[in-house]
Amino acid sequence: NNSGALFPAGRSGELKKALEQFLVLSQGEREAMGNNARKRVIEEYDWERVVDKLEAIYYQIMTDTGNQKKL
Known about the structure:
The chain has about 70 residues and is mainly α. Helix content is about 70%, strand content about 0%. The model has no long low-confidence stretch (mean pLDDT about 85).
């Protein structure tokens, strides 16, 4: 499920390597990577899922601090 490249911030050499790897991909491989990236964004970052994650974080904070209140 290759959907892109990760590299540490400020590491221009690693960015260069990632870009060089993309340049040698075929059109089909680039399209597949783009499709995988879009699918990942839709699955991981749709609003309902983001809200669910935020609610879980807020609930955890409230229970950890002993400040349980109705949400």
